[in-house]
């Protein structure tokens, strides 16, 4: 167990020092920054949005809800949002 904790700590330290953002490595949901969200492929965006919507409602979102939220978040991030804005700040259903 101690070796696993040490390996995880080393891996996390390497990620932080290499400049990777958390959302590139794990699903951060609504805490994902606009800059990171816009750099992601559609699958990763869907994963982030799905987590954000599930965290909010407690239920699995539909594909339609995820798609509509992706459009809303993308528009927000490309217009009024800043690189550091969280995607959860975007207006969505």
Description:
By secondary structure, the protein is mainly α. It has a domain at 31-93. Helices cover 62% and strands 0% of the residues. It is globular, with a radius of gyration of 15 Å. 22% of the residues are buried. The model is unreliable at 1-20 (pLDDT under 50).
The percent range for helix content is 55-70%
Main sheet?
none
Q: Pairing-aware structural class of the strands and helices?
A: mainly alpha
Question: Number of helical segments?
Answer: 5
Number of strands: 0
Q: Which term fits the overall shape?
A: globular
Give the overall average pLDDT.
81
H/E series, N to C? HHHHH
Strand content: under 5%
Radius of gyration: 15 Å
The low-confidence parts are 1-20
């Amino acid at each position: 167990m101690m070796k696993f904790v040490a390996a995880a700590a080393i891996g996390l330290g390497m990620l932080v020092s290499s400049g990777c953002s958390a959302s590139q490595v794990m699903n951060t949901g609504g805490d994902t920054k606009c800059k990171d969200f816009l750099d992601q492929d559609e699958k990763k965006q869907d994963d982030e949005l799905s987590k954000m919507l599930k965290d909010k409602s407690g239920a699995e979102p539909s594909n339609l809800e995820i798609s509509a939220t992706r459009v809303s978040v993308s528009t927000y991030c490309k217009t009024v949002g800043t690189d550091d804005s969280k995607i959860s700040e975007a207006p969505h259903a």
